[in-house]
Automatic annotation (TrEMBL):
Protein name (database record): TetR/AcrR family transcriptional regulator
Residues covered by the HTH tetR-type domain: 3-63
Keywords, sorted A to Z: DNA-binding
DNA-binding region (UniProt annotation): 26-45
Molecular function GO terms recorded: DNA-binding transcription factor activity; transcription cis-regulatory region binding
DNA-binding among keywords: yes
Amino acid sequence: MISETRGKLIAAGRQAFATKGYADASMDDFTADAGLTRGALYHHFGDKKGLLHAVIVQIDQEMSDRLTAIANGADSVWQGFINECVAYMNMAHEPEIRRIMLLDGPAVLGDPSQWPTQNACLQTTTASLQRLMDEGTIRPIPAEATARLINGATLNAALWIASADDPKAVSEQAVAAFLAMVEGLLKNVPAR
């Protein structure tokens, strides 16, 4: 019953935040759509901000699952790493991710690089870089430091894309710059 109630509230919150935005979504949107009371919302999430956090955790997990599948579907660890990073930046085009994760989330919850979910992302990127070093694809580098720089670059690119007047043009620029930047990690840089 508890997980069902939480699930209903998260689903209602997600729908309201995606369609109306955080500022315009009301407590009544969440509770009426879920067929629950405000008391249930307060009990499970404390307030609207707590519900937004729960929605972000859910979307973040879904994004992570998608990105893992993208990376695992590539022909090489390097191509999987590139595909995963580019896919993350391009997720900024998706309306729900754009609005909840990249516009409203930072405005309400603060700097996304400080969200608890970022630790898992940092660990994944660090592990990918270590695998690439171990197989000899990239030069020996401090894996965690490089992961922090890459995660910062992709997050800032996604934020830039999400807030751009012309997201497609910005995305193309961001991806091209990112690819040029990470190419410098390769032991054998491809000839142009």
